[in-house]
Amino acid sequence: MRLIIAKPRGFCAGVDRAIRSVERALQRYGTPVYVLNNIVHNAHVVDDLRAKGAVFVRSLDDVPPGAQLLFSAHGVGPDRWEQARRLGLHVIDATCPLVERVHAKARRFAQQGFTVILIAEPGHDETVGTLGWAPGHIRIIRKPEDVETIHIDDPDKTAYITQTTLSVTDCQTVIDALRSRFPAIQGPQNADICYATANRQAAVIQLAPDAGLVLVVGDPESANSTRLRDIARAHGKPAHLIPDANAIRPEWLANTDTVLITSGASVPERLVENVITWFQQRGPCQIDQRTIAEEHTEFRLPKEIA
After folding, report:
1. What is the mean pLDDT of residues 15-36?
2. What's residue 190's pLDDT?
3. What confidence tier does 81 reach under pLDDT thresholds 50, 70, 90?
4. Residue 187 domain flag
């Protein structure tokens, strides 16, 4: 069996910062440290941090007054900040800086009186947080077909922003449709999709033709991981999203001797290593490491714990 191991893969700078933030908070303040929503969309990461003393909650009503509270990498709206202040919570903001950049664009466009079209997945944690920064100004769309049905009072005062973990190709299709219907629309020169998401997608597009099967290590709740699987399938390859090596099914390997392995931006490297070990335990393997792009981005820890 030949295993093509894609690089870059795994943790992006925002995820790494969020996880380190929880660990640093636990070291500094002791247990418990409360985290609103999952710090990142990966059950293995959440379970590891829970074992160290982090407490994950879906509502601030579940956090005792005066406790240490950490906002996840996906970000929150200003209503959560206000509620945290009312409860006397000590907030550590681990919002990814790239998500914060989208929040800033939403605020700026709204203050200028624009209707803001957010290309995003409804209900995703990042989407919910972004909505809060421009209430009443944002319309959500996901597909090119949505462009034809959206109502805008003043087409000349329209702007768009995007979720950071979308498919680069799919997102561009929506942007093209928006520009066609609203020629005066404003938006970023490039989509707000983060560098790590784009790099991992580019690796799958470039490497999938050499493989008979694509395995993406990632959580089903992870938008960027799910996207990698979908992109491989769109390029005609059988592809599966697996949380870990235990999810591999031997029948997937029929009629193929080359497997591309990658992982989403919230996946620990040990999970990829376990997948490689799974194959090695079944027989001889040729490991083919392929690097598509180098990543050197690092984000500083939040000022509250830096």
Report:
1. 97
2. 73
3. very high
4. no
Confidence category of residue 178, pLDDT binned at 50, 70, 90: very high
Q: Answer whether residue 207 shows pLDDT above 80.
A: yes
Whether 100 is a known active-site residue: answer no
Interval 189-215 mean pLDDT: 94
Q: What is the pLDDT of residues 127-151, one digit of tens each?
A: 999 999 999 999 999 999 999 999 9
Contact between 293 and 203 under an 8 Å Cβ cutoff? The reply is yes
Taking CA atoms, 274 is separated from 62, 242, 246, in Å, by 36, 12, 9
Residue 154: pLDDT band (50, 70, 90) is very high
Pairing of strands 33-36, 239-242: unpaired
* Catalytic-labelled residue, pool 126, 145, 269, 298: 126
Domain end marker among 96, 121, 153: 96
Residues 28 and 68 in one domain: yes
Residue 302 included in any domain:
no
Angstrom distances, CA of residue 204 to CA of 4, 9, 172 = 11, 10, 18
Domain limits for position 173: 98-181
Pairing of strands 54-57, 33-36: parallel
Structure tokens at 180: 């066609």
